[in-house]
Amino acid sequence: MNNSAGNTARLLWAGLRALLVLTVVCGVLYPLAVTGVAQGIFPDKANGSEITANGKVVGSTLIGQRYDLPLKKGEETAAPDLKWFQPRPSNGLGANSVNTQYKLILSGATNRSGDNKDLIDWVTAAKKAVIKDNSVNGYTVRPSDVPADAVTSSGSGLDPAISPEYADIQVHRIAEKNNLSVAQVQKLVDEHTDGRTLGFIGQPTVNVLELNIALKQLVSGS
Q1: Residues 146 and 57: beta-carbon distance below 8 Å
Q2: Alpha-carbon distance 123 to 11, whole Å?
Q3: Mind listing the pLDDT tens digit for each residue in 136-166?
């Protein structure tokens, strides 16, 4: 009986020692080593690819944002602030969508098929809104001008970028709303268009946050 109790105690003590050692190695030393290497090699990416403006962190190059007017009393969804470049929809436009405000706690697609009525209604409404919002004096957006990313969300619903085509159809509105010339705004878009990775992977993109920061600087003259 005593031998059995002693063996049990030794086994428990061995298990406890293994737990302590593994906790220190895997829970403390390994995370510190990985963090140290990441901070030394690519600190910007390790810290979340932060974007700063005037010395203040305003977002990340990896996460999209909304640019809306202040929410009015009685409104459930704020209207877009049309003086800024707008991102792509964040997983639908209706009350049944997954994430309409780029909330980081939510990520994922609506998982609705191409013939789903709700999805068709959202895309139709989004297309009408894009045409209406971006058709200004002397410039009319045609239905065929509206790219897919202007009316559909990304797989994550948090995509920070839009296509150059979507940025281009917003240029005239941005110029009008900010008292700028079309050429000035188009130059901003061209300067903030990133090409394909390695020249052949993916499609050209425009980071909306970086573009709006540049727009703000242009408007303020700083």
Answers
A1: no
A2: 63
A3: 999 999 999 999 999 988 777 778 999 999 9
Per-residue pLDDT band at 94 (split at 50, 70, 90) = very low
Helix (H) or strand (E) holding 185: helix 182-191
Count the helices and strands in the chain (H runs, E runs). Answer: 7, 5
Which run of H or E residues covers position 103?
none
**Quick check: 131 and 151 in contact, CB under 8 A?**
no
Q: Which two tokens stand for residue 111?
A: 């998982």
Q: Residue 60's beta-bridge partner residues?
A: 50
Query: Which candidate, 140, 83, 96, places its Cα nearest to that of 122?
Result: 96
Query: Contact 166/147 with Cβ under 8 angstroms?
Result: yes
Which strands, in side-by-side order, build the sheet including 205-207? 161-162, 205-207, 193-194
